[in-house]
Amino acid sequence: MNDEYFMGQALRQAQTAFEKDEVPVGAVIVIDNKIISRGYNQVETLADPTAHAEIIALTSAFNFLGSKYLPDATIYITVEPCLMCAGALYWSKIGRVVYGASDPKNGYLHVTKETSPFHPKTNLAHGVLHQECAALMKSFFQQKR
What we know:
Layout: H1 3-19, E1 26-31, E2 34-40, H2 43-46, H3 53-65, E3 74-79, H4 83-92, E4 96-101, H5 108-111, E5 123-126, H6 130-144
Parallel strand pairs: 3-4, 4-5
Antiparallel strand pairs: 1-2, 1-3
Helix pairs in contact: 1-6
Keywords: Hydrolase, Metal-binding, tRNA processing, Zinc
Subunit structure: Homodimer.
GO molecular function: tRNA-specific adenosine-34 deaminase activity; zinc ion binding
């Protein structure tokens, strides 16, 4: 199993969000090649602007492990995290963040171009299955117009 495999699993979560008329972002958290939590955007469903895929996956992982830190975990997110989610990832001390598509409008890089919002020990990778992740977002917003 590799980054593409786990990003594919995050894409499945994003597809679930798409089908529920939510912005199609999905996330999975992995430790030792095992998915320990999953999440997809549920902002509309829960009427909660903080119900992003990353937050839901993080909360589930914390509950599963009984810990507030995830130094041995990797989160796979279909779209670049927003600043709120980047902050939550910082406080989780997650070991690695991997995302697919960039988000020039709402992603953390839009706000923090010069410094990383993640914990200093967090490794970052991006562009994994970029085209597939971006295509799902593009399709969703084309339907809205």
